[in-house]
Amino acid sequence: MTDDFERRIRRDLDAIGAAVPVGAAAPLLDGDRAGRGRWLVMAAAVVLVVGALAWSLGPGDGESSSIDVANTTTRSPAPTSSGRPITTDPALDPPAPPVETGTHEIWIANPVVAESDGIVVFAMVGPPGDEVLVSPFQSRDGTEPNGGTSVGRRRVSTRIVRLTSSRETIRSLRR
Amino acid sequence: MDEVVMEESAQVMDEPEVESLFAAERPGLVRLAFLMTGSIETAEDVVQTAWMKSLPRLGGIARPGAYVRTAVVNEARSRVRRRRAAPPLPLAVSARIDESAVEPWDALRRLSLRRRTAVVLRYWGDLSTDEIAEAMGCRPGTVSSLLHRGIESLRKELGDEEQGDD
Description:
The structure holds two protein chains of two kinds. Chain A is of the alpha+beta class. Chain A has helices at 4-19, 31-57, 69-74, and strands at 105-109, 112-116, 119-123, 131-134, 173-174. Chain A contains three helices and five strands, in the order αααβββββ. By secondary structure, chain B is mainly α. Chain B has helices at residues 2-5, 15-37, 40-54, 64-80, 91-94, 102-109, 113-124, 129-136, 140-158.
């Protein structure tokens, strides 16, 4: 048996639920396209891993890839209070990854949840096949004319973890 | 949930069926996740994640809708478990409802997550006690208790203490 109060709760929850802006639904992966999606993920992961290794091991601009031991030794500064010398040679002590300040552009189609190296994109767009340019590091709620876009920063990762649309294509990832 | 949802008579869903189920169920699931978490972005993410986790198994499940709903409830619970209360209504929602519905949300969002989930599944989702128990992975008796205490808390918060129980 339901009393007036419970009817009120039901009515209010219905009103709140109906007011939630929900973006347009889009197809999920099917077999063949899922295969392509997995290949995209694997290819992107390989590129990122190789890139990260090259970046962490490689020299600075214009420098040789070999380390000049004698030179770095003569440039070693005084040790810190903890006794550990501060190395200033980027070949020995690579700088921390740059702070993400710009807008990275990633072309996507359909709902995509993608995380790449320092760039996180979460987008719900429609209709299927439509392509939009989304920019990470922006966050907004609400419904877009094309059916709903929600872009926001998620946790930083070094891999693409999910590609969930039917024909998603990451055309370019420009830094 | 597997024991409840997976049945011997399970039929294999083909891909168009899965896509059509996704299109049909997604709006309701996003709203359910929102009522649990209080965040539109989290709700969309919850549903997306729950679908991706459920996708490999949907083909062999007799009631895929119930299976995904359970996955959404579990995913939403995992996102907000450490939070005491859901956030206030975002502007995107509060701007679209009558002001009188804001106060009930403020009371609802302060319920414990388990009570809030039970109340939402009963009064928004119209689920039976058994269905709620299935979605929440608990016994029907626990659901009855959660609903009773949840509604009583809401009555107190909203000044409706004169009404008795069912």
